[in-house]
Amino acid sequence: MLQHSYLLTLFIFTFWSCCAIDAVVSDPQTHLVTIGCTPFDRFLVSDLSVFNDNLNATFRDIREQVRDQNKHFVPVQESGGGSPVSTLFQCRNYLSIADCVACFDVAAAKVRSCRAGAPGGHAVYDGCFLRYDASPFFDRATDTFNAALCGNKTTGEATAFNSAVQKLLMNLQRETPTIPGFLTATKTQVLNNNGPTIYAFVQCTETITQSGCLSCLDVAYRNMQTCLPTSDGRAFDQGCFMRYSTTSFFPDNYQIVDVTPMDKQGSSIKGAIIGGVVGGVLLVLVALALFVWIKPRKSPKRVPARGKKKKVQIEGAIHYSYMDLKYATRNFSVENKLGEGGFGAVYKGTLKNGKVVAVKKLTLRRSNKVEEEFESEVKLINNVHHRNLVRLLGYCSKGDERILVYEYMKNTSLDKFLFGKMKGSLGWKQRYIIILGTARGLAYLHEEFHNRIIHRDIKSNNILLDDDLQPKIADFGLARLLPEDKSHLSTKFAGTLGYAAPEYAINGQLSEKVDIYSYGVVVLEILSGQKSEELNVNGEAEGEFLLQKAWKLYERGMHLELVDNTLDSNDYDAEEVKKIIEIGLLCTQASATIRPTMSEVVALLQNKYLFENMRPTMPFLVETK
After folding, report:
1. Strand 392-398 and strand 318-319: pairing?
2. Residue 457 annotated among the catalytic residues of the structure
3. Identified catalytic residue from 457, 467, 485, 571
């Protein structure tokens, strides 16, 4: 009997322990704070079917990045079919990845409750925030849906409690915008450790500015005043989230920031003003204290970035060990080498878990700020997410080695299909998809990402093809890392145009129109199957480069003679091909100012005819006589 009682007690204890542990380690915090749908009159969705496809694509992309790349913050945009969607997901950083995924699943299901065709929706939970919209909003700090949600229990000693919460949130409001990642957690006790403990957490979205974070938190702080003296409250806005509670809602081992010294500084300064001579002495002491307090915060800027700072700067990107990448590429063997360019060599790698990746060993320019520049570029590239851009998976920094790890493209680069052993294998439909997808990727870099990125090296071997022959632009965001003694663009301009825009190759003038010019050249390559810099003689006394040939045929109305002879003329519409040749020529006009933007190119590609007022003018031609 005693043995049975012992076993029963042991079972109950074990069952309770499992439940208790599960409750601690797994809590996606899916308590709904607010849900909202954008009114139909705010923005008209042009194609509901395409819009829904794009929305679904962003949801899939976000979930994959959270689950596979351990990200707590993911902004994604899809602009296919003229019905763009911007979607942003933010999970509280104290949650596990499994809980973040769970919170996302709940939020995604909730925002789908918005009526079909609604141009936007948002859901805020204790654990996460999800929003989608037909118009870009990533850099927006505040919106009309800002408000507060308050608890229904009050605390004793309301005056002391209110004062403590207000001081705590005010300090967090002031301090959080200065902290990398824009998030802070803290706790304090009321009435000299005799009252309840107040737990607080503040977070801004990473795509807004420091001043935007401060403005958003100012609105949240004012909204939160309506919650006092209840024991918990939440304030939310487009760009930030603020919460306090007398019940702990983040793990005990989560790193918190002690903001009480700031209260002491404030009271010391006030005493200095009142205390006259004594206050003056106190003011000096406070100044010294401030010097000591600020100095450690600035010191990391004067030493190589490492340890904790490094993790903050490249948050979300996986750090691979050098030995793992060496093993994956068989010691960077020649057999595993996929290619080499101005940025370094690329190798095929198979990680220990079986995942195949592309490993790029960078050749960096010499600089005493190489670590800082590398981290800055990796952080930038890591935040770029679009279906037509190659995705960065992670990085490695060891000694002088700087390595980037990308998703692997089985079909390698476009030039292999145009000029290499796969020449003639692309049909017209596939070529059109590549032309349009590349335009969308560039439009995202130039106009939709929160930092404008000029690629500077658009060419057919920098356009990779996935398993479905969808295009993905590679090597964006790396230009500032290029060695000073190397050039990834041909500056030997006489005799060949190549891909370089004349104003850049000759005068060094850089703008997004440089990429647009290069894109136009790639379009002509895709249509003709001919290399841009290859001189075609064709039995004549004088030869001509691709751009020269295309322009002369256009002038004579003989566009179709440019088309790759491996294409079956029954597979394409002649007028559509003529239009796309003209788009390529529009992009390569000599004057950069009259070249179309990439968003205009996307619109032109999706319309049946060119606009009457958009006719190409002569490009900059190199004579070969």
Report:
1. parallel
2. yes
3. 457
